[in-house]
Amino acid sequence: MAHDLPLPDYDQLTLGDLRHRIRSVGEEQLRALIDHERAHGNRTPVLELLTARLDELEHGAEPAPGDPRQAPEVTGTRGGSPVRPSTAAEHTTPLRHGVEEQTPSRGRS
Fold first, then answer.
1. Residue 87 banded pLDDT, cuts 50, 70, 90
2. Is residue 92 part of a domain?
3. Is the Cα torsion angle 52, 58, 59, 60 positive or negative in sign?
4. How many whole angstroms separate alpha carbon 19 and alpha carbon 3?
5. According to a count of CB atoms within 10 Å of the terminal CB, is the N or C end of the chain lower?
6. Domain for residue 83, yes or no?
7. Which pTM value belongs to this model?
8. The domain containing residue 33 runs over which residues?
9. Residue 22 falls within a domain, yes or no?
């Protein structure tokens, strides 16, 4: 179950966040994450990241100090874009043949 995983909010972590958070996870905990990922998301980039870290640990790397359960909570915008009509770039019409005068109302009101 997700609440038994060594990383809080595992399923909401971005690949970048996960890359940093797994540094303090040991081999057994990492295997639990790999099993969970294969059973649920089965995301190739995530599995590659987890198995690469497991390989490092199996070849002598040590987990970083710290408790991953003490990491700050994830507060991202999962499944949505932070861009809103008020913050989006202004719409422009592409130049017609590269000539501005021949392009009607190019972003002008």
1. confident
2. no
3. positive
4. 20
5. C
6. no
7. 0.62
8. 14-65
9. yes
43 vs 102, which has greater pLDDT? 43
Which residue has 């490092």 as its token pair? 56
Tally of structural domains, the chain: 1
Helix and strand tally (H, E) in the chain? 3, 0
Residue 8 has which token pair? 């809080």
Is 30 or 72 the better-scoring residue by pLDDT? 30
Q: What is the DSSP letter of 108?
A: -
Give, rounded to a whole angstrom, the gap between the first and last alpha carbons of the chain.
Answer: 55
* Cβ neighbours of residue 24 closer than 8 Å, sequence gap 6 or more: 63, 64, 65, 66, 67, 68
pLDDT at position 60 over 60? yes
Amino acid at 98: G
Amino acid 43: pLDDT: 92
Neighbours of 37 (CB within 10 A): 21
User: Considering the domain boundaries, does residue 48 fall inside one?
Assistant: yes
